[in-house]
Amino acid sequence: MSRKLRPYSRIISAILFVILVFMNYLGYWTADRFVQILFFFIMILSVFNAGIETDKILKQRLNQKNQRRTL
Q1: Which pTM value belongs to this model?
Q2: Whole-angstrom Cα distance, residue 52 to residue 17?
C-alpha cells in the first residue's frame, strides 16, 4: 500500500466500525455480547487512530505551506 493511501485507509476503517456499531444498536444485525463489546472497543480505538492520522496529515500540509512561504 502506498504511503499516501495508508492514512486514508485508517480513516475509512474507523468510519466503517462506527457504522457497524450503530447498525447493531439499531437492530439491523445481532451478535453475541462478547462480539458487541469487542466491536465497540475496536470502534473507539479506530476513531482515535483516525484522529491521530488526520492530525499528522494536517500538520504535514501546514508545514508544506510554511516552507513555501519562506522560499
Answers
A1: 0.74
A2: 17
